[in-house]
Amino acid sequence: MDVSIESRRALMSDLLLFDVLLIRxxxxxxxxxxxxxxxxxxRKLLDAIDRxxxxxxxxxxxxxxxxxxxWDADGRESNPGWEPKxxxxxxxxxxxxxxxxxxxxxxxxxxxxxxxxxxxxxRLNRDYVSKILQALSLSSSIPPxxxxxxxxxxxxxxKYIRTAxxxxxxxxxxxxxxxxxxxxxxxxxxxxxxxxxxxxxxxERVLSKMWGGV
Length: 214
What we know:
mainly alpha; 12 helices; 63% helix
């Protein structure tokens, strides 16, 4: 488990979605706690989650993700009967369990298409857009010289943004969406860049990247 977590964390700029959730709950330096190296370290992590600022429901969701890592580290559903029982016993609403599952899928990179399908549920929140897009951008092996995502990756990114409609405010997120659109439909990408004011820095930057990606 440790190797897969650390390698995935490195790919995601040393910050998994699970790390982000821990930090938001007031748990500093999550990399010092996760992954736990032994039972004592696991207890320390569980205690930190219990002392976090989250309510009981969100704490249970963190434990759910943690145990998914421990039991299904390679993306396999090796304990298909456990999760429904845990969700039922802890009274976790379906949309919360689904969102936790989607975050775990994004962190493991095991089934990003499934994660996108879950995130497109209108009941779910639209947090952590940049981190989600970063995880999706890793769905394919991108050559160092590439300036745009491969078609399969682009399709996932476009589906997520078009269906879930998360707010795009960061330049990198806007650029990634524009480049993904270029791969899926250049006309749609052209229409997207026109949504920004003529002569604006964002429009000029997006146009430059679009032409570099075709």
